[in-house]
Write a structure and sequence with these properties.
about 190 residues, alpha+beta, 4-stranded antiparallel beta sheet, 9 strands, elongated
């Protein structure tokens, strides 16, 4: 399994913390297998979850200029026509995808083209399913103009646990369909 570069430091810090917690509890509890084995399983299991959060699966590089691909793993929670006030300033189709803590938190570009607009918005860290999280939480907005002249806007929105947005794109740069454009991670 490949690990995303955003996770190396966080994984190392959690490894040290887990080791310290294990060592502390090891000396607090009686030195019997009935205590040591479950303690070890819990600590290693927790560290394993942290490692799994930063996994980077191989994803087929499918490209079809007529299609929009999902920018992330997760569950579609909203499909609706809404007014977009930040950049497009018109009604658009909104498709919102909720990523749980167990989903891969890499983000891929749904279309290929030229990045026309990219902006970081600092904000709060409300739970992701809160109705105001899409406007109040830390987020980035990216608009890509496709070869056919269409504009596609997509956002990365932080939540309560995955609170830091890392973006690899900038205005004026080209991006390919299904290229990695960012990561939403926990930590700072």
């Amino acid at each position: 399994m490949k690990i995303n570069r955003e996770g190396f430091r966080v994984i190392a810090v959690f490894a040290v913390l887990c080791l310290l917690v294990w060592w502390f509890l090891f000396w607090l509890l009686p030195h019997e297998w009935a205590y040591i084995v479950p303690l070890t399983v819990v600590v290693v299991g927790f560290w394993g979850l942290v490692v799994a959060f930063f996994r980077e699966p191989t994803r087929p590089k499918l490209q079809d200029p007529k299609l929009l691909y999902a920018p992330c793993d997760g569950r579609v929670v909203i499909t609706d026509v809404v007014y977009e006030p930040e950049y497009l300033k018109r009604e658009v189709m909104q498709i919102s995808i909720f990523m749980s803590i167990t989903n891969v938190h890499m983000n891929w570009s749904p279309v290929g083209g030229q990045v026309e607009y990219h902006k970081y918005h600092p904000g709060k860290f409300l739970v992701a399913w809160h109705p105001k999280s899409s406007t109040k939480n830390e987020r980035t907005t990216t608009v890509v103009r496709t070869a056919h002249g269409s504009e596609v806007l997509f956002r990365q929105i932080a939540g309560l646990v995955a609170r830091r947005i890392v973006s690899y794109v900038g205005a004026g740069k080209p991006i390919g369909q299904n290229d990695v454009f960012g990561f939403i991670k926990f930590g700072s």
